[in-house]
């Protein structure tokens, strides 16, 4: 009996020596295994959803590009001939570019968009910095009142804006398109969120050195706000460039028409010339695509730094 017990103990010691773990000890369980599998499954699902969304976005865009290179007489026959015909041509682009009107539209859109961006960034950042740093009675109420403007559709204000511009004689001018778009509530909100997150050490040090409120804003806060300034500038530029309702109401001079208004006239005059319509649409959207591809990093960094990330 004693010999059998000694043999069992010897065998147990040999197993512990080879594995480092007692034979009676339970197998270790990795607590992170379930989390890793869940994270992997979530990544797969999100990748599939993003892929589906990308395909849904790309198919109409690719279809528009294909139609613009298809002759008008083929695209007028319907989707089937447009898809199967591969005798591509640049005639639609030549027709639009040779007409000359699109260059006026480009100029008008560029002027109104650039000036609106400059004024919006200046006034929105100044107002947001004041609301973020100054302490005065009713500050929260003023901010809530301003942000409440997001809930008012711009289309509701078209008639009052038109009457005001008519009263001061600004109809059929670039200012009629620029001034109503300068008070951008979303830009003020994003700037304020960004300023609230900025550390105040530099400002307090500058104030000790004798810098006033304006000097601190201009020399310290704005340089630190480059990401959000770039993001708001690009978002505002895209919004003004794509605005159709306001220029359509306040401009009747063909030489002052912006890209969206000009495209609306093209669609009305071209009739069934679908290829020409698609070519003009692509030429109108091309500057925005180039702008986004060049500055997409600044857009992401600006919104992430403003505290609006998900």
Offer a quick outline of the entry.
The chain has helices at 2-19, 33-68, 72-75, 79-84, 91-99, 101-133, 139-147, 158-167, 174-178, 185-197, 201-208, 213-224, 226-242, 245-250, 259-270, 274-305. With 310 residues, the protein is an all-alpha fold.
Q: Any overview of this molecule?
A:
It is a single chain. The chain has 16 helices and no strands. It has 310 residues and is mainly alpha-helical. Helix 6 packs across helix 13 and helix 6 (101-133) runs antiparallel to helix 15. The radius of gyration is 31 Å and the shape is globular. The chain starts with a helix and ends in a 5-residue tail after the last helix. Mean pLDDT is 81; it is low at 17-25.
For the secondary structure, the number of strands is 0
Number of helices: 16
Coarse shape: globular
CATH fold assignment of the domain at 91-305: MetI-like fold
SSE series: HHHHHHHHHHHHHHHH
CATH architecture grouping of the domain at 91-305:
Orthogonal Bundle
Helix content: over 70%
Terminal CA distance: 71 Å
Reading off the top of the CATH hierarchy, the class of the domain at 91-305 is best stated as Mainly Alpha
Structural class of the secondary structure composition?
Answer: mainly alpha
**Mean of residue pLDDT values:** 81
- The whole-angstrom Rg is 31 Å
CATH superfamily of the domain at 91-305: MetI-like
Question: Could you name the ranges where pLDDT drops below 50 across 5 or more consecutive residues?
Answer: 17-25
- Largest sheet: number of strands, sense, barrel closure: none
Strand content: under 5%
